[in-house]
């Protein structure tokens, strides 16, 4: 079996690694991939010309290389219809159609969809005019949440603690065009209090397979402070998602999405990510929808997955998803190492030292997933040659060091030990990933 994974981040490295472990898989191509995917057994990075917006490069590659399934990692190609294009060409692709991907591609679409289908979420208003947006902020007060309407790589969300910060966010998005077209419209939301959790499912149009729960850490600095990022680390499972909360999420959030999309004539297929706020009563509220596996949640979740990811996707493509998968009972925790300046900027070309050797990495309970990495010779594609080349930074979030252990505290310490041995100019990471779960562990001891 030949598989094509679309994307270049830590999520795609984890997906490719899981797929390559399956005995039925001959080749896993990753487009464009990173240094980590280039080094994985049975994996090969490929550069596809897909700049015309019609995804013809992907389709031509699949047809020329007998690709049995395409797994789409990031949101941008989903929003522009890569799954639709593949299906039209007779290629099996795992992900939502462009219509369904609007749940992530447009905050306005998502909020209106939730309102129409009674899915719990924060009160909101949408704006294109800065003066009107500021007047609404004056009425609502702070703290308040400002979101760019479109795709902004996970960074178009500002939690404003003061009116002044909210004004600044409005000016950045609507007046100064900080997020380009993504910020030409903003959604202003009520600030929700509680504990966040990531609830990710596989959906085949009818059947729902909940993945292991997880919790992301969006803020850049320890203590959940600083600017929002694409995610500085995650762990699985999330203790805040009790069985009671799980059942509420399925009944009030996930099932209504599946039912409404099917009723609209656009059955939802692929991964669905509900970013949730769980309040003190254990009631879930949707902060955001993503139409793909979360990053960095994918890394600890897939460290725990014992079922075959290839089998699960194949069953999903056939409309026969099982209701449950097999999981390692141990928790997993991933720490993101980001480059200098992240999230405001990123650094490229800084040599990364201290990476574990791949064979040791695979044999242990710690796995280093690559995200923003490349080789010093970017043109190299030969796996043996790549082992001799320096790995350098190539983006904002560079690596995700992920560990499995008997408890979250031990997983955190195992991940920190490997993280501390890795270095490059300007490397930054949080040392408190998993602090909510660790506090729960300590309270029980």
Characterize the structure shown.
- The protein is α+β, with helices and mostly antiparallel strands and 445 residues long.
- 34% of the residues lie in helices and 26% in strands.
- It is built from 16 helices and 23 strands.
- The strands form six sheets. The chain has a five-stranded parallel sheet with strand order 3-2-1-4-5.
- A hairpin with an 8-residue loop joins strand 7 and strand 8.
- The termini are far apart.
- 51% of the residues are buried.
- It comes from Psychrobacter halodurans.
- It catalyses: 5-phospho-beta-D-ribosylamine + glycine + ATP = N(1)-(5-phospho-beta-D-ribosyl)glycinamide + ADP + phosphate + H(+).
Helix/strand class: alpha+beta
Read across the widest sheet, the strand sequence of neighbours is: 3-2-1-4-5
Q: What is the overall pLDDT average? A: 92
**Beta strand count:** 23
The N- and C-terminal alpha carbons lie at a distance of 48 Å
Contiguous helical run count: 16
Helix content: 25-40%
Uncertain runs: none
Radius of gyration over C-alpha positions, nearest whole angstrom: 21 Å
Query: Could you describe the largest sheet, including whether it forms a barrel?
Result: 5 strands, parallel
EC number: 6.3.4.13
Family: Belongs to the GARS family.
Domain ATP-grasp: 111-318
Organism: Psychrobacter halodurans
